[in-house]
Amino acid sequence: MALQCGIIGITNVGKTTLFNCMSTNKAEVTNFAFSASKSNISVINVPDQRLFELEKIQPTEKIVHATVEIIDIPGLTKGANQGEGVGNKFLADIRNTDALIHVLRCFDDPNLPHIDGSVNPVRDIETINFELQIKDLESVEKKLQRLEKAAKSGDKDAKRGIEILSKVKTHLENFQNVASLKLDDADKKHIDDLFLLTVKPIMYVCNVDDQSAISGNKYVEQVQKYLSGTTASMLIIAGKLEAEIAELDDVNDRNEFLASVGLSEPSVNKLIRAAYDLLDLQSFFTIGPKEIRAWTIKKGMKAPQAAGVIHSDLERGFIRTEVIKYADLIALGSELKCKEAGKLFIEGKDYIVQEADCLHIRFNV
Fold it and tell me: Helix, strand or coil for residue 319?
């Protein structure tokens, strides 16, 4: 599914370092502000140990992971909405994303000066929020002007649109992101066409020094306090450490390194999975001797639409799907044993596919 998760943040916070840890497409990393002239895009495999567990039950020629598209958007700064740095271009790149990962600098480094003179992740959150809010305010005000003209001719829908947009405008003027404004689905249609920047789901990543990789530090505590009472999620990642881990090709060397710093897996794996979840995505599995594959669907998708992700013919000719829960398959050890235990379910067109369902689609075209 062509959904993008954008990595944003103040310049020189370690966004591109984290991007390179996740991606096979390596982007240039420098200590100079605004050195990047374009955003970097990569399709990244979503780490999923469950696929290898399934291979123990069904040997296969190939394992195919689910993927997520990540875009590394060069750093922003104060005045980005007016084109400071190379702000306007990158604000447009943010508009094209579906969710955001906001990387925060939570480490000290005298060789890498912060563009604002000191390390303060809460100030950085507020700086980025303000730039996005100003850009959204411009979009809302332009649409309000159009609707006011339409309302004068008696357009009732335009009048309702003015009410909703006025509410959104006030919210933005109070330095609040649109995502925190409660609107029902009928009201959201009045802003959907604006692709507002502050309506996107967002996750914060605290980029820390190596010593703070497990328990965080004073900067992380500041972020936690700031985000308390909100629904925003937060991860702690030591970007420099992750870069060293990513350079190790040998699995044993990598595992030994991870164990030495108290990690069970690279933290960027958690970040990739979190990005996948942030995009409201989930996986189902198909299993066979030729291929074991994780397929990506939106949460809440019904069985015929999930079948259509595999091939349009499967959706068009969908009859039913045989469903085995991943946990049941692992516990019982085979499809036959699941069937004997009553753990193989026949589901029709209204079945909502669940995370990690193992599906066998029946169709006729």
Answer: strand
How far separated are the first and last CA of the chain, in Å rounded?
A: 24
**What whole-number distance in Å separates Cα of residue 136 and Cα of residue 139?**
5
- Cα torsion 89, 201, 224, 220 to 10°: value is -40
Helix 239-246 to helix 251-260 angle, to the nearest 10 degrees?
Answer: 160
- Token representation of residue 60: 């296969």
- Three-state DSSP class for 114? coil
- Compute the half-sphere exposure of residue 312: CA atoms within 13 Å on the CB side of its CA: 0
* pLDDT: which is higher, 96 or 223: 223
Q: In angstroms, rounded to a whole number, what is the distance separating the alpha carbons of residues 365 and 354? A: 26
pTM more than 0.85? yes
* Backbone CA torsion sign across 349, 354, 355, 361: negative
103-122 pLDDT, tens digit per residue, is 999 999 988 888 888 999 99
Token digits for 315?
A: 């959706």
